[in-house]
UniProtKB/TrEMBL annotation:
<feature type="domain" description="Glycine zipper-like">
    <location>
        <begin position="93"/>
        <end position="143"/>
    </location>
</feature>
<feature type="transmembrane region" description="Helical">
    <location>
        <begin position="102"/>
        <end position="121"/>
    </location>
</feature>
<dbReference type="InterPro" id="IPR058598">
    <property type="entry name" value="Gly_zipper-like_dom"/>
</dbReference>
<keyword id="KW-0812">Transmembrane</keyword>
<feature type="transmembrane region" description="Helical">
    <location>
        <begin position="127"/>
        <end position="145"/>
    </location>
</feature>
<keyword id="KW-0472">Membrane</keyword>
<keyword id="KW-1133">Transmembrane helix</keyword>
<dbReference type="Pfam" id="PF26273">
    <property type="entry name" value="Gly_zipper"/>
</dbReference>
<protein>
    <recommendedName>
        <fullName>Glycine zipper-like domain-containing protein</fullName>
    </recommendedName>
</protein>
Length: 154
């Protein structure tokens, strides 16, 4: 992708960020847009679908800029749907994960394992349930940090 297109999109995102209030900034997920732009740029050489998604995101951001004064709920909904479509492509095809992905998964398994140990082996559920949750949090945080080091976090 052209470096100029990317820098133009980032400049537009910065302009939108400076113009809108904090609540709308969070709703538009502008930081996530920047990360997605970077990822689409890195995968665009080998993936034609990433090129198409980049064009789609570019059109969406330009549309947001044009409607900046009077954004409607349908515009926000369309923007979120676009981001979700692109994110699901990046997660499915390029094996990226969202931030906190492993932590959320391991927080489910940790208490389950603690419950299993507490019921079957040690006959003390109240003691092993929080220990299992703690172990799950530690494992999930480790896996999230490892994915971040490998550059697999979207």
């Amino acid at each position: 992708m052209e470096v100029q297109r990317i820098s133009t999109l980032k400049a537009i995102l910065q302009e939108i960020r400076n113009t809108v209030d904090e609540q709308l900034n969070l709703q538009l997920e502008l930081n996530k847009c920047e990360r997605i732009i970077q990822r689409l740029n890195s995968f665009s050489v080998a993936c034609e679908e990433c090129n198409q998604h980049f064009t789609l995101l570019e059109d969406d951001i330009l549309q947001l800029k044009d409607k900046l004064g009077d954004l409607e709920d349908s515009d926000l909904k369309h923007h979120k749907q676009t981001l979700e479509t692109i994110s699901s492509h990046l997660q499915g095809k390029h094996k990226l994960v969202s931030s906190g992905h492993y932590l959320s998964i391991s927080m489910c398994f940790g208490p389950s394992i603690g419950l299993l140990f507490g019921m079957l082996i040690f006959d003390n559920i109240g003691f092993w349930l929080p220990i299992g949750m703690g172990i799950g949090i530690i494992i999930g945080a480790y896996l999230d940090a490892d994915a971040g080091k490998k550059g697999l976090v979207l």
